[in-house]
Amino acid sequence: MPLQKILFKPGVNRENTRYTTEGGWYECDKIRFRQGTPEKIGGWTRFSVNQFVGVCRSLWNWATLKGQNLVSAGTDKKFYINQGGYFFDITPIRSTVVLTNPFSVASAGISIVTVADTDHGCVVGSYVTYSGAGIVGLGGNITAAKLKGEFVITAIIDDNTYTITVDAVSNATDVSGSPGGGTVVTQYQVNVGPATQAPLNGWGAGPWGAGVWGVGATATNPLQLWNARNFGQDLIYGARGQGVYYWNAEKAVEPVQVTITIAAPGVITMPVEYSLPNGTLVQFESTGALPTGLAVGATYFVVSASANNFSVSSTIAGPPITTSGMQSGLQFISQRGVNIYGVEDVNAPILHNYLLVSDSSRFVILFGSNEFEGEALDPMLIRWSDQESPFVWTPAATNQAGSIRLSIGSEIVAAIQTRQEIVVLTDEAVYSMQYLGPPFVWGIQSLGDNISVAGPNAVSLASGVVYWMGVDKFYMYDGRVQTLSCDLRRFIFNNFNKSQNQQVFSGTNEGFNEVWWFYCSANSTVVDRYVVFNYLENVWYYGSMERSAWLDSGLLDFPIAATYSRNIVNQEEGVDDAENYGQEPIEAYISSSEFDIGDGHNFGFIWRMLPDITFNGSSLSAVDTPQVEMTLYPLQNSGSGTGTPAGAPVTEGATYVITEEFTGQIYTRVRGRQLIFKVGSTRAGTTWQLGAPRIDIRQDGRR
Prior knowledge:
Distance between the termini: 19 Å
Structural class: mainly beta
Helix content: under 10%
Low-confidence stretches: 207-212, 654-658
Shape: elongated
CATH architecture of the domain at 4-41 and 586-699: Sandwich
CATH topology of the domain at 4-41 and 586-699: Jelly Rolls
Number of strands: 59
Mean pLDDT: 91
Strand order of the largest sheet: 10-16-13-14-15-12-11
């Protein structure tokens, strides 16, 4: 018999049996298709130098006017700016209060300090920072220095009391001196959220009508999902269900120490390498106490700016503030964002679920927010600021601020900016939002209903088309909403943990014409699986990978992703797993559906296989040569299970100017009515692309 090429249809198909999909690919991990043939995906290297705290679920990249290439990262505990590979904490302050003698110690020999604050509103795991005057009371091992800085709230006693753990062990003097602490400036960061969706049970837990009457319902505690978009060079950000914050890029990404004069007006001096223009929003931090006239956590505007000197005012272009009295400790300009509520408009939003900044018209748009002059979050309400004014939200004849409420669904889940419109997705419908100009400003058009979306981050835009993952299928919008045909639909959704749907996230890899979705498999509460749609070749493939957020390259050299090891990595760089600066191999493989001679009436005998593969891009090693394993699995009949496989390694040989050498032939001696072909690699430094291998096969009887 003549040699027979092994050529399979591109893409992986799991919608039918392995035999029904004859002529195609059936299983894979960490491969992609290029020009119709499979190849191993790229490796990853460490992008970040230090680590973040928590599980990162939001990444955003932009550049400032000074050429700074910045990446924001939001976790279940913190919000960061990454510059030059280093993370800087800019988690917003939820509230600032001044407490008098709030600290108590119950007994000697412990490190637990009880803090009294009426209606503190904290949750376990949240962060609080203390600063202020010297300690009063206590006076033992728990000194004033031990009670300054950032702490994690370890337990909630009641609405008015919580505990922290300090780096000291109390003695009898601390107990007898309680309560103490003197005058303490206390800053509460926004509350942390769960790392996974936690079940909530009982009355009011689920949507109206869920479950049996009188029994209650089940829902999940929502994740801490951050939204971030740049407004010019500045950043608008906030956590889902919480406030909206503005971070001015003119400030440094870490606190900058300043000097403040006691004068009329007070003058703030920064290091010579810094300068802030008039109108910049600033807040102050202190290890001791600020001069009278200034308060920690209050919002001020820069006025009378000159070089690295300026004064501050309570309003834009208002009179500069006079400082008086005494100051102590070190003074800093805070790097944290400012809550937009009350900066210029007392009717600015208090809460939001999702946010965007419209590309050309420059509106800040909130999807799910509190109504004008209201306090409760309306999950179907869309609010937008005045054009070019992220702090003006009260509608008036002189501005374009406004709102509109959608009607189909119970909440707005996600929104995404396209070239001509904003596509808005509720839990039941899809809308188009377009800028009309005054007096209506923004118009809404329904695009379809009875349509789901898996979570707020399950939507991507690629080549002008919107793609998203629903709760049981995939969708696309290219002018009309339609179901996206998927050869892996049942395979994906039968192994999808829907109770962790908010963890689903999507991202593009436009260098390879791909849209990726990451999700939790059926028995997992962490993201451990992915599925890819290649929109250029119209094929699907899948694999396993633990990631929690993804962002395409954009202004970066490579796509980046967040790992559960609290790092950011460059995807598609190198060929190995180098997250920890080593060279760990990435296991990648693809296996075919069953194939046979004719309709499988006779057995086939294969005595040799001639590979066709390229190792281009592999990293040569003194220890290992780039290598893949090619294997044939015989079956007596379809569904009978595989017999003893036959195969051998294929290694790279000497490379000449014109040709690339590799193992010339593999002697197999395998016999089966049906066969499965598999190629894969487990060796470090190896990458590969399959061509058209050939097999020497002959008909070999019926039994």
